[in-house]
Specification:
alpha+beta, Dbl Homology Domain, Chain A, PH-domain like, Herpes Virus-1, 7-stranded antiparallel sheet, 18 strands, 44% helix, guanyl-nucleotide exchange factor activity, zinc, Znf_FYVE_PHD, cytoskeleton
Amino acid sequence: THTHTHTHTHTHTHTHTHTHTSTNDQKLFNIASELLNTEKAYVTRLKLLDQEANKGTFPVDVVKNIFSNISSITTFHRDFLLPDLEKRMGEWASTPRIGDILQKLTPFLKMYAEYVKNFDKAMELLKHWTDRSPQFKAIIQDIQSQEACGSLTLQHHMLEPVQRVPRYEMLLKDYLKKLPQDDPDRRDAEKSLEIIATAATHSNSAIRKSENLKKLMEIYEMLGEEEDIVHASNEFIKEGNLLKLAARNASAMERHLFLFNNMLLYCVPKFSLGGPKYTVRTRIGIDGMTVRESNNEDYPFTFQVSGKERTLELQASSEQDKAGWIKAIQETIDIFNQKNESFKNALKDVEEVSKAELGKRAPRWIRDNEVTMCMKCKEPFNAITRRRHHCRACGYVVCWKCSDNKVALEYDANKLNKVCKDCYAILKGESVTEGKKKGILEAGPGAFTDSSIMCGFLQYSERSKPWQKVWCVIPETECLVLYLYGAPQDVKAQSTIPLLGYTVEDSARPADPPAAFRLSQSKSVHGFAADSEELKLRWLKVIRVAVLGERPERPQTDGANPGVSDNNNEHEAGTNGT
């Protein structure tokens, strides 16, 4: 026993380092095993997506746009990466390394770039088809009820390829931390990490976008699916409860705000079990908005938000809450103005190529950094899903949706070139009237609101369809036309009504909301309702002149924007939307 103990003390230090190395080896083995196990699970779910894509249940073009290049991704993982990893784990004792295998992944990351780039569009399409087509919805529900799906949504599974690359990055980082400096696998592993990390940043931004869309969907449901807010260009920023101070009565009323990058939704809580939680009272555009503290002796923590549509006096729950709201709103306003500024400047500098020269002379290209959003559809650009493209005919910077056409250009030896949709129509000689009409609708209300004879929210119903809230504008430049927008910041009008020749009926039908009136001409009947009788009379005064083809006067008001009455306080409780 004695000698044994003696030797033991001798080898003590040796055993210590040996155990350290073996636990480290064990950790490296565990990381490699985790890589293999997650890869197996990943391939199972890829196969599920691939099978659905190729089953023939979806129309071919829908598959291409929703499932993108999932088949190539599946093939690579199923037939190459997974078998390689399985083989390696089987011979780990003699070849303990994964860097060389993951390096094989790097040339295939292009496939992921493609998938991630298409992801936004895929999610929008999925929502679009599920909303519009009962058959499509049934197919999706059928897929989701399968055991292999693990009762998760199709969207969840489609996010997997987006999340996979960041997972490789994480595992590789762990692996490199545990890998001895002089290990033969170090060079390969570091090289792989460098390339995979770059790809992961793209995926991460897509994941953030997907989380934003998920949040928009939740809010959309809270608002009873009434407000059209689920767009990739809408970014949720903040929400919370506040009290609204009314001008007339002393008691404050509970309100809920949702702040986005381009609008503030001012909502009233609905006290109902299940169903929508809030009703939108006003949608205030960030364009032209200001926010400031208000010094209200009687009410602490108050601040004022003032927009084109409405001014609100709000009370927060604490000094900290107030500061949080003011900061968030101010930052949103600043970012919005910055983007708008660069957009205006870009348009100012454009030397328009005249229609006659279109395609015959190379245009001056607008520089990428001069614009932050597509110069045609106004969608904001980003690095992955909406990149900048130049129209080779007019030089505008547009997104892929707006440059999805090719046409032969004379200045480029009649070769086919990418052009924007407007140049495509002109060069193809498509009826200009169609282009004209589009131009009219695309004049944003912002362009008119400042110089309008009358503007404001009205309830609107066409051919006895359900009533909906619309932003109406009669511009000074076209005083015989009524423009209808979904919201004051929309780029495009929903429709226009040329007022000349319409008959005005100032009598409400039994089912109409209060303060309703109607415009009719042969078969077409448009119903409108104002927030108050007084506001209705102001609109009618203008419309009655316009239907005769004469130029209406701007109604005189006490300095407020003519159509936007801010005496909404008295209707707060009464008009609970229709």
